[in-house]
Amino acid sequence: MAEPAGLGLDFLTQIVNVHWASGLAVEFGKQAEDAPKPPGPSATSTTQQLKRNRRRIG
Amino acid sequence: MSYLELKAAPIPDMTKGIISLWFRDARKNNPPEPQAWPSGLWSPGTDSMVPPDTFKVIQEQAFKHNVFFWNAYGQFITGGGVTLPLFESPSVMIPSPPPFVANGMHMMLTFGDAQQSYDYCEWQVTYPGVIEAVNYVPMLTAGPQWSATAWPPPYAPWIMADGKFKVATFVLSGSTPKPDLVPQSFIGVDKDGYLTICLQTNTKASYKGYAFQLDRATEIRATLSYFQSPTDLPPVPGQWVKVPNYWDGYEFWYKDVSNEVMGAQPETFVIGGPPAAFDFITMPPVSDGAWHHLLFSFDISGGVGVQWPSLLTGGARPPPSVATGCKAWLALDDHNYTGAALQHRFAMHDGFQLPLLPGMGTDATGFGPVTSATRAVMNLEDNAILPRNCWVISFRNSPKLGLRRFASTAGLWELASSTYINKGDYNWFNWTGSIWPLEGTPGGFEWRGELHPPKPSNPDPKTFDLPTYQCDGFIIPVAGHPIGIPASEHHLEHNTGIEMAELQIWANRTIDTADISMRRLFVDGNGEPVSPSKAAEVLGKPDILLHGSGNWQKGKNTGASGADDDDKPIPAGQFVPVAKIEKFKPEPELGK
């Protein structure tokens, strides 16, 4: 298919660039306390584990 | 501070590489306090990693009655009975110490083995077990002045206050690996905004002629001849009586410990960095808080050889022999840098660029044993690079030239000329300044004896190696080791906050950043990022690609190590985000 006059590959490249050239950057620099807590055993599950262990020992 | 970490990189070890990275405002917070090289005057059990200065050690109470014939920093220049307050050559050159390279650094990327150790060998004092040295009474005038206190001597009169001196020396112990001194490879910005790249290999070089220890001392014994019938002058052969086995000093045996001293750390290449004296050309600092782009490529698969000749008579320093097959290419903000801007000398504790460290010995000049050479001295091609220790140069002369082959007190007064005679090539003039008065020879009429010391049987230090470096097969250990953005856990204190975008890493590929068509794969004519697909068309899919804020936030690597051919994520190749990584505006654009 013939390209419309004045809309060569350069134009298409620009469109592509505009499309991808946004939302590229990030910022490192927040303190660790801002971060969501990493997944790990919750207090409840730890308590339950202790109870189970006690039962086994007892 | 937030960061991304890939604990065990599923990419191969690197001898070559390409790294493209957008970054901005790397100096938001202060880096940690600089890590000091453990220093101080050597003492038993010391933590100091500064070689021992025996001139100072003998001032310590514990060593008041020892004598050292070796000093890491050199012996004073002597000649004609005169001692100048100047050192001849250090016996031990000092390597580029490891903590300095990461000091003051704001990290942007760390990669490679974080657990390499610095194989440090401590200096330990030992006693060679030879007859004790004596500080003899100096000869004041010609002719007999004393009688020997024992016959046959080894000992003639000495200054009682000084007495005898037990011969001591320093030798290296086995290596004690020190952790946390060898950094990962990194890309960082120093406190003044100078881009610094460290390529930390796991490769050990071969060093010769950089450091010698005095391993062993043996006694040498002379033969005394005296004339039996002095009435019959001049003496004729056959009337001399020879009495062997007079102790006459020591000869010294050395070991080349260059590998232990200089090669404690696996080889490191450092690119960029701040200006240093006589090497002022650098890349411009990136301290303006705006977006910058780094395109860096390296090839350290070639070998490196360096040899430092001794100074010419008169003190001129001939150029070193240098051969390197290692190269780097660097474009910062779409500008290609070569020569001194790419790699140049660095500051050492030489008493000139940086103050001497506590415990370092010096002479009247105040200079340390080593400094670094300038790029002009190394005479490198535009893109050639060298491991850091290849730049280290003796501030004085070749270490082998400062080693004493022997020490003797056997100088004799020659009656005819009233001057000292140095027997053969044996006597050390400085030592002959203290005469051994061989008076009181047996017989009715005494006559001055003549001493015949043997020629030394030990190797002549002048035949030892010049400082010579040889290494090939450099490898940066990357496979299975952490990659951190801006820093992995090992260097977390150096994560000082930064904005980043568009990280692309190719292992074991290179590009020439002087080629504008290569730079245009990453930065367009407007100073904006180019789609990563462009570089992938030419260079293939990068091993690591972090593209787009969303992927950065999740640590999603869409390069070859993080996504298969169907773009399905490979779990082992994903970064783990720690703490909050936020989207950032403005978008990357040079100068914005």
Task: Sum this structure up briefly.
The complex is a heterodimer of chains A (58) and B (592). Chain A is mainly alpha-helical and 58 residues long.
Walk me through what this model shows.
The complex is a heterodimer of chains A (58) and B (592). By secondary structure, chain A is mainly alpha-helical. Chain A is built from two helices and one strand, in the order αβα. With 592 residues, chain B is mainly beta. Among the domains of chain B are: 3-130 and 167-211 and 257-400 and 465-471, no CATH class; 220-249 and 404-461, no CATH class. Chain B has nine helices and 32 strands. In chain B, the strands form eight sheets. A seven-stranded antiparallel β-sheet of chain B has the order 15-11-10-6-28-1-31. In chain B, strands 20-19-16-2-29-30 form a six-stranded antiparallel β-sheet. In chain B, strands 3, 7, 8 and 9 form a four-stranded mixed β-sheet that branches. In chain B, a hairpin with a 2-residue loop joins β19 (327-332) and β20. Chain B is elongated.
